[in-house]
Specification:
heterodimer, A: about 400 residues, alpha/beta, Peroxisomal Thiolase, Chain A, domain 1, 9-stranded mixed sheet, two-stranded antiparallel sheet, 12 strands, about 15% strand, globular, B: about 140 residues, mainly beta, OB fold (Dihydrolipoamide Acetyltransferase, E2P), 6-stranded mixed sheet, 3-stranded antiparallel sheet
Amino acid sequence: MSRHFEHDSVISGIGQSTVGRRLGRSDLDLTVQACLAAVADAGLTRADIDGLSTYPGGYSANTGGYGGPSPYDVQDTLRLDLNWHQGAAEVPGQLGALVAACTAVSVGLARHVLVYRTVTESSAQGAGGRASVLPAGPGTASGMGTWLLPFGGVSAVNWLAQVATRHFHEFGTTREQLAAIPITVRQHASLNPAAVFRTPLTGEQYLGARMISSPLCLFDCDVPVDGATALVVSAADYAPDAPNGAARIEAFGTALRGRPSWDQYGDLTSMAAQGAASHLWSRTELKPGDVDIAQLYDGFSILALAWLEALGLCGRGEGGAYVEGGERIALTGELPLNTAGGQLSGGRLHGFGLLHEAVVQLRGGAGARQVAGAEVVVVANGGGPIAGVALLTADRG
Amino acid sequence: MATVDDDVLISRMAPLDDPLTRFFWTSGADGQLRFLHCATCGYFSHPPGPRCARCLSAELSPRAVSGLGTVHTFTVNHQQWVPGQAPYVIAIVRLDEQEDLQLTTNVCGCDWAEVTVGMRVRVCFLHRNDVWYPLFEPVQEAR
């Protein structure tokens, strides 16, 4: 029996800043709003916080509204005394910040770790450029972009549109099927007062929307927002003292298998999600059939489809047929998907919005959109060569 | 030698100059597409690296390929990242020489609406920024 470091921690508190379009507020301001909310929600004070973790880190990682403040800025603003901290992007998806926090708790480096993710991409977009779209003009392409940007592949929408084309080609998936994801999560967003887009989306509107990068249209792309999400990871023995309840961490999937590249991955229809998902199921006795709610990364609709298949929540290549019509993934369906509206309608909180909603649901606090009896939630983050996944469970004492 | 004079992109970025990859971006000067080839096991590694990705041999050198391949997947970009940019095709092309020898490129020389998965294509080069960009155009092969 291998040891599961995940079981040494719980999520004891969550917090979210104001979320919206072009709020015009400092990323540090939004971050502190979310962090203080999470600390209070956990029944703690700042004196209790001895760890700090973020994705993707500040400074050089924070261009175009993508990153948020550095751990150093947050530590200084809150005058925290930390035994451990980290901020990094080259980790298992955005969830890497959570994995790192749980690791630190498990090995005894920290007892209460504040974990945050902040974006100001909407304001950055208004100011002329956000980092999720790489510069298309004259210049030099480097890093992962070296082999993509010189051919006008400037955005993840271009790279993932090719994933969608391949999925359509191999499995006969259609735009009408894919439409069920943005349409259904929009219904969920209508029950979330904090969501950015809350008016119903029709199939006609979807099919008539302008194409961004075929076959992905405007409604297949998430909406850039400003906002911060924070949570507190505590040593598991703190769970009974968490005033609003804790969520348990059953397992993480952190594997990186295959080539970490947007265009060299062998099976383009699954990419890195496949490795992370199989790793997740190797670390738990739970099975895909035990999952009550799926919070799957939907930076683009096709990614949620890829995660559904990679996690074995439906068969390989069957994602299109599975989501078709939307009944299965609705709040009343067999596998409610992205119950707060996901990133497509709730806003691009870059993985952490999905994590936040998972805890809300497990604590039974989702109000009109609450899924009755939700005990097991899977949260998947990342797309293309980037992937991390967590299985969270309700704390029933 | 197949060259392209008109670019489908209004603005084309240059790749970072690097000693490992320079041969790839300048290979088209003589009309040949080259990939890093292993003298020990015969495997093509792409993007280029310091060791053969299959056998880790350092006995690597650029080797010309036929330039023939197949569109593995593609997208037509409509979003005007650069104002005024017309739709263009980004594709992943798999070269005939090896099943996993593939690269991101543009398909040119045909209407964007004509591109399909499985389309047979041949390399052609666009000379800009001191770089010979390997692009691909449809081929009608004799049967």
